[in-house]
Specification:
Layout (H helix, E strand, L loop, with lengths): L29 E2 L14 E12 L2 E10 L4 E8 L6 E2 L6 E2 L11 E9 L2 E9 L3 E8 L5 E3 L8 E6 L8 E7 L10 E6 L6 E7 L10 E4 L4 E3 L2 E12 L2 E11 L7 E4 L10 H4 L7 E8 L5 E8 L3 E8 H10 L5 H4 L5
Parallel strand pairs: 6-10
Antiparallel strand pairs: 1-22, 2-3, 3-4, 4-5, 7-8, 8-9, 9-10, 11-12, 12-13, 13-14, 15-17, 16-17, 17-18, 18-19, 20-21, 21-22
The chain binds beta-D-mannopyranose.
Beta-D-mannopyranose binds next to strand 7.
């Protein structure tokens, strides 16, 4: 009987592959053998899909996908799948409207996350608002996507919504930064009563002295509620003489006050080492944006962008990954405090 549990829905049809029984079996997260699950040129007019988010929906799966159009501009595409591995995409990008139902398209849109809170599905992405900023839209039927106007000031990216309210408020992680290929950045938490007005901003965690996340970090997948706290898969970035390297890290945030980091793994959970992670439009990138998880078995599937070119899938269990994070945890004062100054 596992002691560490996911608090949430059962998703018995989620994708799953057992841990390979080779020498690397000590790694807490293992890759799907048939990766990448989305190859290049997946849709007419789209050169690459990566950094994308998926969720269970009815008895199958849906997702919002970063599609890099052949004109170089990223946009969000809607996709559906029976097994969360093989995906079919709409040919046209998602059409967003404003509160009056009028067309309201962002200039560009990338790195979408998709989170259900109560009966509403929220898509959160990075867009232009006189510089890189957070874009947001809501839908209840995946037919009408209504944008919520500029929730945060620029410059900001990697906004990740919690899957439920805490103390009656929506909770969002984000990563304030600059407008370019940001060489710095910590994760902050903001709260809102209505998804429109955000405040009570708190610091969650910063870059660390570990080599793989020494430059900047950013939220990844929507936090998973567990009996140990919120399990967060995030990205950590280091700078090398040959450019940035993006790895996947793991932390556990306090369940009631998620600006407090309880555990933070000093080791990466996954770092670029396969051809589709090391070679592509931007080499050496593992960029998590979503998980699918099953409370009954504790299984977790992590969806991550690989080399800004592909989508990869990796697996773990809540028991294994939370234990690994706890065993290898180093939490600094700036992480463990409430983050208010
Ligand atoms: C970041 C974001 C991601 C991208 C990464 C690596 O700044 O733009 O979309 O995957 O760079 O290029």
């Amino acid at each position: 009987m596992n002691e560490i549990k996911i608090i949430g829905a059962n998703v018995p049809n989620m994708p799953w592959q057992e841990r390979p029984t080779d020498a690397k079996s000590w790694m807490p997260v293992w890759r799907y053998k048939e990766n990448p699950i989305i190859d290049r040129n997946p849709v007419e007019g789209v050169a690459r899909i990566f950094n994308s988010a998926v969720i269970p929906y009815n008895d199958s799966f849906i997702g919002v996908f970063r599609g890099e159009q052949t004109n170089g501009i990223p946009y969000i595409y809607f996709g559906r799948s029976k097994d969360a591995i093989h995906w079919e995409f709409d040919k046209d990008k998602i059409s967003f409207v404003d509160e009056n139902g009028e067309a309201f398209m962002p200039v560009y849109a990338y790195d979408p996350r998709l989170v259900q809170v109560e009966d509403v599905y929220y898509i959160i992405w990075c867009q232009d608002f006189y510089g890189a900023a957070i874009g947001m839209a809501k839908t209840t039927d995946f037919k009408v996507f209504t944008r919520i106007e500029n929730p945060f000031l620029p410059f900001n990216r990697n906004a990740v919504l919690f899957p439920r309210k805490i103390h009656g408020n929506f909770m969002m992680l984000s990563r304030p930064s600059d407008s370019g290929h940001t060489p710095f950045g910590d994760i902050f938490l903001s709260e809102s009563p209505d998804m429109i007005y955000w405040g009570k901003h708190r610091h969650v965690m910063g870059k660390s002295s570990e080599w793989w996340e020494a430059l900047k970090i950013g939220g990844g997948a929507a936090p998973i509620e567990t009996t140990e706290g919120w399990l967060l898969f995030y990205h950590g970035v280091t700078g090398t003489c040959n450019g940035y390297v993006y790895s996947i890290g793991g932390a556990i945030l306090d369940i009631d006050n998620p600006s407090i980091v309880k555990y933070r793994c000093q080791n990466f959970l996954l770092t670029p080492e396969t051809w589709y992670e090391e070679r592509g439009f931007v080499p050496n990138v593992c960029f998590p944006c979503a998980t699918i998880h099953d409370a009954q078995t504790g299984r977790i599937a992590v969806y991550y962008g690989a080399a800004d070119s592909y989508v990869g899938l990796a697996f773990t269990t809540v028991e294994e990954v939370v234990s690994y994070i706890k065993e290898n945890s180093v939490v600094r004062e700036a992480d463990s405090e409430i983050g208010r100054r």
